[in-house]
Specification:
Length: about 280
């Protein structure tokens, strides 16, 4: 029997000015409430999937990140952070590492019989091309997954599942090339070919979504400060991922959802699409 592990997840805090449908002015209060709840729970790890701030300018972003970092330092649990695209418009990865006190580069962690992958893939926006995975991102992921024999979960800021964006406030119409890396299929090929990955968890797209690819669940989680599904209130969303004999993900807040499924048999693959 696989040992159980519970992981609390938060994403797209977007502390800063209100922008579009994001309530950045309440994001810090919501984050502090999340931390109070998690500190009182039996949780092995906390994962922040990125976009901690809504970018404004260098000085403002640094000030906002410092407040977010101070809040995270009140956590009594171990934590990991992922870089989001808004995080690095004006600030560097080194800025985030200095303020958060954690690595914001690719790394992984083995915990209670699970291999947890914190994949900080490039969030650089290429003019006219959207986001694109760099070869070094793909090489690192391939090497990391090849080196483990444990069932693995990949955490990233952007999804790699090409899930439908129909109805999405941001990505159906206005930002039609911004929902994920243009070459995300290369990451999926590595993930599926590794025969190790039992789930992929991401943020970025500001809604709850579950999409299966080759039997692997790809979860996208709602933003903490988003309102488009819960208008006029911020969703206040965060999640608990429970790994054990099943994979269970429960999202809390004003936009709740619950998923439960068996752990994938990683050696079994779907039939390839017909030619």
């Amino acid at each position: 029997m696989q040992k159980s592990l519970r992981i609390a997840i938060i994403t797209d805090i977007h502390y800063g000015p209100d922008r579009y449908s994001k309530k950045g002015d309440v994001a810090l209060d919501l984050l502090e409430n999340f931390i109070r709840q998690v500190n009182a729970m039996d949780v092995g790890l906390v994962v922040d999937l990125g976009d901690r701030i809504s970018n404004a300018d260098l000085l403002t972003d640094r000030e906002h990140l410092a407040r977010v970092g101070a809040a995270f330092k009140s956590l009594t649990k171990d934590r990991r952070h992922i870089i989001g695209n808004h995080d690095v418009v004006h600030l560097s990865i080194a800025d985030h590492e200095a303020i958060l006190g954690r690595s914001l580069h690719h790394h992984s962690l083995d915990m209670d019989g699970w291999h947890l992958v914190f994949w900080n893939a490039s969030c650089k926006l290429h003019e006219g091309q959207g986001f694109r995975l760099e070869q070094e991102d793909l090489d690192w992921l391939a090497t990391d997954l090849a080196a483990t024999d444990l069932p693995s979960v990949v955490f990233s800021h952007m999804p790699v599942d090409t899930g439908s964006m129909v109805g999405n406030y941001y990505f159906e119409r206005r930002y039609t090339h911004g929902e994920q890396h243009r070459n995300a299929h290369l990451a999926r090929r590595l993930i599926e070919g590794s025969e190790k990955v039992i789930a992929v968890v991401s943020g970025h797209v500001h809604w709850n979504q579950l999409h299966f690819m080759d039997g692997i669940p790809h979860f996208s989680l709602q933003s903490l400060s988003e309102t488009f599904t819960t208008h006029p209130h911020a969703a206040g969303s965060w999640a608990l991922l429970t790994l054990g004999d099943t994979v269970e993900l429960e999202v809390f807040g004003r936009d709740p959802v619950m998923y439960r499924m068996p752990v994938k048999n990683t050696s079994h693959h779907w039939l390839a699409p017909m030619e």
